[in-house]
Amino acid sequence: xxxxxxxxxxxxxxxxxxxxxxxxxxxxxxxxxxxxxxxxxxxxxxxxxxxxxxxxxxxxxxxxxxxxxxxxxxxxxxxxxxxxxxxxxxxxxxxxxxxxxxxxxxxxxxxxxxxxxxxxxxxxxxxxxxxxxxxxxxxxxxxxxxxxxxxxxxxxxxxxxxxxxxxxxxxxxxxxxxxxxxxxxxxxxxxxxxxxxxxxxxxxxxxxxxxxxxxxxxxxxxxxxxxxxxxxxxxxxxxxxxxxxxxxxxxxxxxxxxxxxxxxxxxxxxxxxxxxxxxxxxxxxxxxxxxxxxxxxxxxxxxxxxxxxxxxxxxxxxxxxxxxxxxxxxxxxxxxxxxxxxxxxxxxxxxxxxxxxxxxxxxxxxxxxxxxxxxxxxxxxxxxxxxxxxxxxxxxxxxxxxxxxxxxxxxxxxxxxxxxxxxxxxxxxxxxxxxxxxxxxxxxxxxxxxxxxxxxxxxxxxxxxxxxxxxxxxxxxxxxxxxxxxxxxxxxxxxxxxxxxxxxxxxxxxxxxxxxxxxxxxxxxxxxxxxxxxxxxxxxxxxxxxxxxxxxxxxxxxxxxxxxxxxxxxxxxxxxxxxxxxxxxxxxxxxxxxxxxxxxxxxxxxxxxxxxxxxxxxxxxxxxxxxxxxxxxxxxxxxxxxxxxxxxxxxxxxxxxxxxxxxxxxxxxxxxxxxxxxxxxxxxxxxxxxxxxxxxxxxxxxxxxxxxxxxxxxxxxxxxxxxxxxxxxxxxxxxxxxxxxxxxxxxxxxxxxxxxxxxxxxxxxxxxxxxxxxxxxxxxxxxxxxxxxxxxxxxxxxxx
Length: 800
What we know:
The chain is mainly beta and 800 residues long. It has three domains: 2-101, Carboxypeptidase-like, regulatory domain (Immunoglobulin-like); 119-221, Ferric Hydroxamate Uptake Protein, Chain A, domain 1 (Beta Complex), CATH 2.170.130; 222-799, TonB-dependent receptor, beta-barrel domain (Maltoporin, Chain A, Beta Barrel), CATH 2.40.170. It is built from six helices and 46 strands. It has a 22-stranded antiparallel beta barrel. The relative contact order is 0.10.
């Protein structure tokens, strides 16, 4: 139909032109709308005639009749457009094309030439195959593929990332352009997002990406869900994974729709169901997981503006090892000192208390507008609702009632302007406003771990990049954030005096509630962040990065106000009203060299991080009696700390189809004030891969070796309890890290062609091949049980 229409137009124009004076000229210039730069070799097509613009973007068309013409203007990497011109009225025109059409970027996950958020800090990206391999697991599991990134876990289903020794509120997670707000302060609170919803995940190590926030002392995880490019297309994916350990699996499906008129959409859903996991020698009772997720996006991408709507839903129930929740004082000491869990039940899919139930809703609307020869304005509003329920082992009428029930509402408005008319010197300025309200449900009948509070944050930032030379890029940024926390909290009067609050904070008391004070802490924090660095390219592919950044982080509510039993962690957590801001000064370097021995490369990335008022949670050396039983007491405290380390990656192509990669990470964390190691620093680790890659199949043998962490503080204690009518004194070792371990994994994939090329792939992954028994220092369940044993996972991936 389109060809027929063009023929009719040409014939119609020929009839009209017959007998007319067809000696008119049409001249003009073709410029990049993005920065006003002339476009050389742009193509102007009309009536089966084609001409091209010169180096200055100029063009000239002669022999035209005084009628209307439809000119098709195109250029490599540009989005073509049709311009209709009446030659009887217009003989000269400036035509703009969008040459840097990043909004239409179609993500290719295997490439390394990606758009970066920073130029002078290390950025790593998960490959497409990594995302597919971890489809039935978690974000924290997948990010361990990156050197310098480990995980803090509570069993094998509650996993959160650790970047160069830092985690929780020190890491910002961006969920498709929205900062994730899901009670991330808890060490056993995994990110509430589905890895299957994203087609691109990358890690920025450090606080230099100031557009996301000034408190990312550890780094930023950017998870993106790109819509398809502007073309008529329909494609999708279905993936099914089944695993032997846990006797379950997951399934996900997505469909993408694209239209020529600028509209595109994507729909995705996934489910996951596992029963109890198994260590090599026993069942890890009550460690099942159930998860249901959904996301949908709709967008319009135009030449000068666009709009995007997005919604995601996450719903999960995660069991917590039954043996970690015990009744009396003697049981805790016996559990920590026992080589096997004190409670081992037969395998089941049931998920009973203790457990977590989490729901997370996220919605956003985002728009952009481009301005000729100036830049791009972006604005976004987002809303998030997070509900977290934690269930303890309760009796009677309360057995199905959560012990912790938190509702967190977050509204955020942000906008930025990118000045990019000068391709060598780009600037971005912006602001972010966030209002957050946390509402604990008083119907739990349990003392609230954290109080009702309202939190307001306002941030301003400016960042810039400057290409000093073709191979030298400088970047710099500055950010200011104001944080206000307005809380209502009850304190036991005895606790209030024991902590010394009566001498410092009596002005916070607003009511006398018998044996409790009702207080109204209103706290203000002013935070500044500065970052600057250099990216220097030399030889063919070699690169050197250096960055110096200063960042502040205001304490989160749990660090300030926690006061009671944290049920999912099975510990009593005590915060401190005196907690100050963290101040971090970090210097990071990275050098990437290629062809040292031929087809190889090596990247060495050392760093040092000085953190004043470093906040951490550690055992206080005591066990406290509660109505639920006896639990160890952990307290938040502050110190001045230094964290330094290095991440090393080496890769080589042994043959055309065989490659070898290896990585090493080391971090040294020291409490400067008390001259002792910092708790929960990742142990030195190696990760190596031997890869066989053919056209239709690939095979990967992976070795992970984690050394024993020999640097740790001594928080061991003795505990007295009555057993058989006599007082027993037991030494409780909660400090000594477990022994190091070595694991081997094997993964293979074979591709088939059904209707399209390589549209079906089958994969088999075997983790912990030799069924090694081990415990990991950063697994909170290491006190009670081993990590999981051997696991076979079969993956089915169909693309259409």
